Automatic annotation (TrEMBL), chains A, B, C:
It comes from Heligmosomoides polygyrus (Parasitic roundworm). Its main location: membrane. It is found in: Membrane. The keyword Zinc does not apply. The keyword Transmembrane applies. GO terms for molecular function: ammonium channel activity. This is Ammonium_transp domain-containing protein. Keywords: Membrane, Transmembrane, Transmembrane helix. Pfam families: Ammonium_transp. Belongs to the ammonium transporter (TC 2.A.49) family. Rh subfamily. InterPro entries: Ammonium/urea_transptr, NH4_transpt_AmtB-like_dom, RhesusRHD. The chain crosses the membrane at residues 31-50, 57-75, 122-141, 153-171, 183-205, 217-237, 274-294, 314-332. GO terms for biological process: ammonium homeostasis. PANTHER family: AMMONIUM TRANSPORTER, RH50, ISOFORM D.
Length: 409, 409, 409
């Protein structure tokens, strides 16, 4: 916290260099607000699915997004041409929108680490990851001329694999099959609040920086159709892969959104509605299969535990977005896109491992293993917290009571 | 599900005929997004009031809306002039908005059947109802020249009475007074999330297709004033009709919205604020009286059980909208509106009964009577599900414990 | 209720004097809708934090907002130049937006009185407070030429201190340390739904009436930066002031918003990003300190019990907004702002004390002391209400069981 206090001060001191931008904002503001709802309501509530980690999910999401928005504004401002020339950088609606995107990267990484870090550790992660993400994005966009309008590669895939690399570096046996890692009936419904707001506003996310207006409308329509197809596919695959042929709320809250990620890179590219639907179908199928088979493997074989399954919602769909981008681009301009995939992975891998070890330094207070995936160590909780959030079937409940009664007599 | 898989494939194959529309979208997008929030957040959470059916309400709402949007796009596209001429149809923001309206029809019918159908049966209902709805709408708008800007007749009244007809055809004694049909304290608060989002964005729903801009503003103001008057009336009537003079959350979550339905048909017509307020007052009164006295009668006398009370929120207010439309129109253009009411009912009645019997075919897996209004048969549920969602007073709880302790000794 | 019925009729009769305004609405509608979400979702859910008062919080919020919107439209209309000249007043989008602001005043006062009044008493409060608020606002804006774009003084500070004065006049010893005054785990998460929607849309609230477009963008950017800085500060101070060094959800749901209030008065004034950040930091610090130390003092020493802590979220930050306004204005136009602070307090104090005594008249049904902060007296509640909403630790639960078992043998 002291460390963070210092950086927060630095933020404030760095700011006076900026000055307000006076461009009219009529057309951009609604999409900016939609993106804003996604960051704070969408991500925040999507992560409340853990039964004992609801306060942390929504609050740390808020704290981390705020911190990253400030920090991203500064890093990006200090690297801008404007700063190099004038020693000042501007802050306007465009910069705030970009800062929201930067926050999304960190929140995705937070998803992989959900329940395993203390608030200070999350902030340190954001402190390190934000400049790396901006560096990678610059590399992808300017060196390789990749068109990535919805940020599927530079936001989703990067955020997911950075988070997974952290998770691997930070792995411990106690993280797996922890009794706190699960939902209760009502916490799954909270998560759906986040999921559906993400679903509804995803077209704005993919269209927000698209230019000109007709590309913006294409981005909206393609994202919409991809999400629709992805959702139907998710229900089909969720039922098909389940032992009891029932739907799984984890898939419904997460995989239904994969269509938005996968169409992201190419949402503004001219393409047929059929293509958007195909992208959505593939995204939904890959995401459900990921949750069902790949996440357990990643955890047991590679030691990369993934609390929210960000690999399935952001990682693989982001990579798919790159592949689809390569496929679509063959039709009219292969040269500009060819190497879009290769750039991501080396850039990420090197940064990640160092990162994990910094977080493990004993200087920062670690989460006690018993209190992983739980609010109790960091939030004041009401008196019912233990009672309401522990898994409790009739059977468990009765045996507990019986013991206490037996003790009494 | 196999059946649905085939149709989903057909959807995808039907799509390549479409091509993207390039009209700018600055002015329409915010209202489109508001409508979108209503369909997915509003309807989805409004139906979570059942204590053991929250997963299904929000998830099946999502699935059914997605399916209907695709299916509605295809049906409407195949019937368009453009398709008749070119063999192709366009998909743009206007078409997506119309598809959202088509989804609303199905979701209203779903409200009457809530808890009584399996997911596949809901999809079959949507498959049959969507073309019928489009046919009726075409008839109402083009043959009878009815002005129905907010869709009160073709969306709300049609959806409600189609659902009720299904419910009658599908009736069984076990549907009534089922132990799962009720709320718990927190599920009523979930429902209010949906209700208030519907309330807040209803002006956009009624104004979205109004032209020109001044009619759009009238539609917003009239809907707003009608909702305000309706809400106050609902509180008054809810208290007045209750035995203990308390408010009933069912009325507050539903009847407060009836003002939006009833003003829908005439929201864009020039009228005084007073008229909008009167419409709202009548809508609220009729809706509360409907919940209190008519819904039980429909169920016991006519055998049409109505889980969400769609007759009171969509059916009767939709009919009222037609009546008000006829009243208002007498002032300046009687010829165009006169027969607006007569057209709805014959068109519906014939389609409905066939429908119900198709759903009853034993081919499709029926909902087990014990598991009506419950998630357990179709969703994987957390371990606390049985414990949290059964009605439990202190008394019930103690007697349960005592029995188990007695067994133990 | 009879009294209210009479006034509701009067509302309806007063309305026909109005006529619709035909100005285009493209640019203003999105911000109007954002404000609307804040009033109904934001305030409504923020107040659901009490464990046994969720129905009332969200429903009475809805009723009171509707009543105030109608009543505010009439009062403001009857006082308008237009009415004085023509005997009619206009209702358009601008008037509805202003009415939303008027509702905010009443809802803030409701926050101070949350759980202590019956629905009729809240309506009487709104009936009296609305004309007073409009009178004070007129005085502040026109007599003293105060620039208060986000309404920090005339909405937030006035609403908070009116509510506190009511609370003092209405004080009784039973209000303090009442067993119903507290949250359960899930009710705190409900409150976060409201808090985050307020947070996300606050820039629209402060910018909605700002003119011209560049001032609107400045208002958005300044509010955004102030909120970000305020949020980070809130987390720091919440942890620093806690005995166990944990975060307190009351601070996180409320103090994070104080930055929006404090920047409100000056959001459209030209200033550096640094200044917005400083405003946010001061606001967050003052608000957390208020919750921690000043609210208990107000209650015990002055007898002004403040259920939601509106003094900390609206009162002191609103006063701070005036102070910052005075500081900022020294740079370029001291004359117009000098007396902005002095005007609020005398105008409020005189009106408040009479008010409290009217509410205490035994004519209106009072809230029974045992049922303060609880829904049971005014809402039909599901069977689990008592079980779910009483604080229940394992210990309490076991002792209850043991007693009952002991009784049984």
């Amino acid at each position: 916290m002291v460390l963070f206090g210092l950086f927060a001060k630095y933020d404030v001191n760095a700011m006076p260099k900026g000055s307000e931008d006076a461009v009219p904002m009529a057309s951009k503001y609604p999409m900016f607000q939609d993106t804003h709802v996604m960051i704070f309501i969408g991500f925040g509530f999507l992560m409340t699915f853990l039964k004992r980690y609801g306060f942390s999910a929504v609050s740390v999401n808020l704290l981390l997004a705020c911190f990253t928005i400030e920090w991203g504004l500064i890093v990006r401002g200090l690297l801008s041409h404007e700063f190099a020339q004038d020693g000042k950088f501007s802050i306007g609606l465009d910069q705030l929108l970009t800062a929201d995107f930067a926050a999304a990267v960190i929140l995705i990484s937070m998803g992989a680490m959900l329940g395993k870090l203390s608030p200070v550790q999350y902030l340190i992660m954001a402190l390190i990851e934000t400049p790396v993400a901006i560096f990678v994005e610059h590399h992808v966009v300017h060196t390789f001329h990749v068109n990535d309008v919805g940020g599927s590669i530079v936001v989703h895939a990067f955020g997911a694999y950075f988070g997974l690399a952290c998770s691997k570096a930070f792995a411990s046996s106690g993280q797996r099959e922890h009794e706190n890692e699960g939902s209760v009936y009502h916490s799954d419904i909270y998560a759906m609040i986040g999921a559906i707001f993400l679903w509804v506003f995803w077209p704005s996310f993919n269209a927000a920086v698209a230019e000109p207006a007709d590309a913006r409308q294409r981005a909206v329509c393609n994202t919409f159709l991809s999400l629709v197809a992805c959702t139907i596919t998710t229900f089909l695959f969720s039922q098909a892969t389940d032992h009891h042929k029932k739907f799984d709320m984890v898939h419904i809250a997460n995989s239904t959104l994969a269509g938005g990620v996968t169409i992201g890179t190419t949402a503004n590219v001219v393409l047929h509605p059929l293509h958007a639907l195909i992208v959505g179908v593939v995204a939904g199928a890959v995401s459900v299969i990921g949750y069902k088979y790949i996440t357990p493997l990643l955890s047991s074989k590679l030691g990369a535990h993934d609390t929210c399954g960000v690999n399935n919602l952001h990682g693989m769909p982001g990579v798919l977005a790159g592949i689809f981008s390569a496929i679509f681009v063959l039709a009219y301009d292969p040269a500009a896109y060819g190497s879009s995939l290769n750039v991501i992975y080396p850039a990420m891998k090197s940064a990640d491992n160092a990162e994990g070890f910094i977080l493990r330094l004993k200087i920062f207070n670690q989460v006690r293993e018993k209190e992983m995936y739980a609010d109790g160590d960091y939030f004041e909780t009401p008196a019912d917290y233990d009672f309401t959030t522990r898994v409790r079937t009739f059977g468990q409940f009765q045996s507990l009571q019986v013991v206490s009664v037996a003790d009494y007599f």
